[in-house]
Write a structure and sequence with these properties.
The protein is mainly α. The chain is built from six helices and three strands; from the N terminus they run H-H-E-E-H-E-H-H-H.
Length: about 200
């Protein structure tokens, strides 16, 4: 007799999962039909780039992220790399953006979030993307090359001045202040940076 309640419980669980999947597909379909034309991925990447620039100004590797709710087309979380500031190698921009979202919108139940990440998402944090108030994660869609030249220039400026948090034995050039590094980065005051083969 105990098999019947277990089978019933399993059937109810399967039905709930199917309903959640159907609701999620409807939400994604709604987004695709109603917001795709208005969705300005360049504007959102610019916001991520601003976070990356702020990280560089603080002596962090220039990496930034914004979380976007596709139903409202609003940024709901922001983050920048803070691994040096917090002395924690896991404090990547994605974690910071998710924490910002959770702090500011803990009471909201947003069904879907889009993540705009500069540069591309790393393997350490890609699993974390599903934990920002989400029960399941649809396949991650990635699109590269948005604001590519701005992104490369920001990384060049950072690495041209040297990473002040790198161990001395790993440094390949003397460390400049953030202001010194910015002055020699192709602006009116400085010359263009040398091209590095890896950028």
């Amino acid at each position: 007799m105990s098999a019947k309640p277990e089978a019933f419980g399993s059937a109810v669980h399967t039905l709930k999962e199917d309903q959640m999947t159907e609701r999620r597909e409807q939400q994604v379909s709604f987004f695709a039909r109603n917001h795709l034309e208005a969705y300005d991925e360049v504007a959102f990447m610019r916001e991520a780039l601003k976070e990356a620039a702020a990280a560089a100004a603080e002596g962090e590797v220039p990496v930034g992220c914004v979380l976007v709710c596709p139903l409202t087309l609003r940024v709901v979380g922001r983050g920048r790399n803070k691994t040096n500031e917090k002395r924690n190698a896991t404090r990547h921009c994605e974690f910071e953006a998710i924490d910002d979202f959770l702090r500011s919108a803990a009471e909201r139940n947003l069904p879907v979030l889009n993540i705009h990440n500069f540069p591309a998402s790393c393997s350490l944090t890609s699993g974390q993307h599903g934990d920002a108030g989400r029960e399941a994660v649809p396949p991650l869609l990635c699109k590269g090359g948005i604001l590519k030249s701005e992104a490369i220039e920001l990384l060049r400026r950072f690495y041209a001045r040297g990473n002040p948090n790198a161990p001395e034995c790993k440094r390949k050039r003397p460390i400049e202040s953030a202001a010194e590094g910015a002055a020699g980065c192709g602006g009116e005051e400085g010359a263009a940076l040398p091209r590095h083969d890896w950028l």
